[in-house]
Amino acid sequence: MRFTLNGRTVDVRAHPMKRLLDVLREDCHLTGTKEGCGEGECGACTVLVDGEAVNACLVPFAQVRGARVTTIEGLRGRRRLQEAFVEHGGAQCGICTPGMIVAAAALGRRPNLDDIKTGLAGNLCRCTGYSGIYRAIEAAAVPLRPARRRGARGKRR
Amino acid sequence: MRTAISRLSLVEPRSLRHALRLMRDEAGLVPLAGCTDLYVALNDGALRATRFLNLWPIEELRVIEPRGPVLFIGALATYSSLIRSADVRRRLPMLVSAAREVGGRQVQNRGTLGGNIANGSPAGDTLPVLAAAEATVVLGSATGTRRVPFTAFYKGYRTTVMRADELILGIEVPEVEGRQWFCKVGTRGAQAISKVVMAAVRAPHPRVALGSVAPTVVRVPKTEAALTGGASVDEARTILMSEIAPIDDIRSTAAYRRHVAGVLLGRFWEQTAAGRPVY
Ligand SMILES: Cc1cc2nc3c(=O)[nH]c(=O)nc-3n(C[C@H](O)[C@H](O)[C@H](O)COP(=O)(O)OP(=O)(O)OC[C@H]3O[C@@H](n4cnc5c(N)ncnc54)[C@H](O)[C@@H]3O)c2cc1C
Ligand code: FES
Ligand code: FES
Asked: Where, residue-wise, is CATH 1.10.150.120 in chain A?
């Protein structure tokens, strides 16, 4: 079945009802996407499908036919966001981190604290108490140079 | 995943008509929409079905549009698309409020209105909205389309009047006159299933619908009649508390639910009083 994975067109053979999460980890060997609960509660498995955050543990593989799938490995353009998690203590054990970063990436370039809190309501973290995560995303939202304030890519929602 | 995937199979319809023919020809075929209920059950090993029908690619089930006097909302409309829709915001703001309270963003991007209705949990957050709006469910089968008033759709706990060969095509919402109100009480702010959920409309004949206080979503005609007749909200609250039949379960107790339902009725009445900003 053909779809776009992290910007590249790929053909992957897997059972149509296999969870997207398992296809990514087992068939595509992209193990950055984590499994926490396997029931949609924790967001550790968050990936983008056509730019929207979804729980890969609840998506049958067949439903990404022809879609653009982006995993944590594909967020190369979001270095600042990733570094901010390190700088601001947004990651401790790390199991929630890929999902947090992918969910944050779906919020566009300049989310405010309210956007961040509602946008990440479906991502649980047992370690940080969230404030480090919110600080990291807020810090990454501030552009390095004022000239880049209105980035070419606006909010996706 | 506790279910062995190898014994499952998925059928891909070429069109809505094809999907309806497949539903007619094969008993036990289970439609898949956003899978936010089904895959939880599948991951848990709690699903007995083995043959599934992929509805997700059927674009015509995604439309949201005014059709004459009603607003049509396709079964595959996701919570996110309800929140984004200018028509839903304008005509049924209480549905937007409900959609915002469902799960987290990931579930909102995938979960559908049709799935919420078909799943039929008494805690389904959109169900009191549809009951208070006096919506109609549009059911399709290979032999045609029929319309069922939403308030007659459930026969009992998780059972509906839908036949095995039917799909929900969407719902039709008439013009709702009056102020719309919605409130959900759960364990935490987000990602929580309701302990009590209420949708209501403040009009000369007020309408009040509740979830999680009975085996199905309910309208409360005695309470509505009291409010229509000019009873005080305290009197109406007493009637409401005897009119509902909540139970103790993993999420809450009957006593707490009865109390909260009364509190919500009071808030609805206060917050929709004339002179208050339109909700
Ligand atoms: C973490 C999490 C949080 C949640 N929070 C909430 C919440 O706050 N409030 C709430 O109400 N729900 C909640 N849910 C439940 C779920 O998201 C909703 O019930 C959702 O609307 C289901 O839609 P779906 O498209 O995912 O349905 P699916 O899982 O695809 O299907 C559900 C059922 O409906 C049937 N079905 C689907 N579409 C049709 C159709 N068109 N015709 C006939 N049958 C159909 C399927 O066969 C299946 O039996 C939550 C779920 C998760 C995982
Ligand atoms: S593993 Fe998918 S939401 Fe927890
Ligand atoms: S860092 Fe451990 S769960 Fe978030």
From this structure: 79-141
pTM summary value: 0.94
Q: What is the pLDDT of residues B124-178, one digit of tens each?
A: 999 999 999 999 999 999 999 999 999 999 999 999 999 999 999 999 999 999 9
Contacts of B14 in chain A (CB under 8 A): none
- Report CA(B191)–ligand 1 centroid distance (Å): 14
Contacts of B204 (CB under 8 A, 6+ apart): B178, B228
With beta carbons under 8 A apart, name residues in chain B contacting A15: 5-6, 8
Which CATH superfamily includes the segment(s) A2-73? Answer: Beta-grasp domain (3.10.20.30)
Q: What is the ipTM of this complex?
A: 0.93
In chain A, ranges of CATH 3.10.20.30 domains = 2-73
| Ligand 1 atom closest to the CA of B38, numbered from 1 | 29
| Cα angle: A37, vertex A41, A46; to 5 degrees | 85
Would you say how long chain B is, in residues?
Answer: 279
Distance CA A64, CA B266 (A): 46
